[in-house]
């Protein structure tokens, strides 16, 4: 089976697992400026060939001559739309940096020990609640990053899916982007290190 390269699209950059350790290194495309409420990778489309070239060189430097035979196991923000997912697949697949790509959301990757759970995260534009069951997203709700009711979100988390109303389902607070302080009371807080440790050993067959 081809080697998997775990990578995470965060709110500001792309984290790629190093070849010789479980640590991650950051890829930031030169010349890309942050725009409020717009995921940074949208701007890759403005100079797509250049971005693909720099990413390919980045992977080549870290993984050596056989990098193009690998699978990129991409962890995306929880509010990634179907159209954005297609763009992400096409961008990386056509960069020449891999043989295949596969995707899953951060919420789907946040726990390997529980078959059912709720995740909450904050992207560059939304707060996202997800109910995960057997690695599938069974329910999802978005709240605008700039206008939301914290207490309302906490209450919604209890009724996100009918399973939650009748079962004791754990809640995980994804603090990878270090922006979830106000929601720590909701459940188990997953620190950046804890999240990266999970992704470093991700099983591609489940992505």
Give a structural overview.
The chain contains 6 helices and 10 strands; from the N terminus they run E-E-E-H-E-H-E-H-E-E-E-H-H-E-E-H. With 207 residues, the protein is an alpha/beta fold. The strands form 2 sheets. The protein has a 5-stranded mixed β-sheet, sandwiched between helices. A hairpin with a 2-residue loop joins strand 7 (126-133) and strand 8 (136-144). The longest helix has 16 residues, at 48-63. The chain is globular and about 50 Å long. The relative contact order is 0.16. The mean pLDDT is 92.
Q: On the 0-100 scale, what is the average pLDDT?
A: 92
Number of strands: 10
Oligomeric state: single chain
What order do the SSEs take from the amino end to the carboxyl end, as H and E?
Answer: EEEHEHEHEEEHHEEH
Poorly predicted residue ranges = none
Note the main sheet: 5 strands, mixed
**Helical proportion, percent range:** 25-40%
Rg measurement, Å: 17 Å
Helix- and strand-based class? alpha/beta
The rounded distance between the terminal residues' Cα atoms is: 14 Å
Neighbour order of strands in the largest sheet: 3-2-1-4-5
- Overall body shape: globular
- Give the number of helices: 6
Approximately what portion of the residues adopt beta-strand conformation? 25-35%
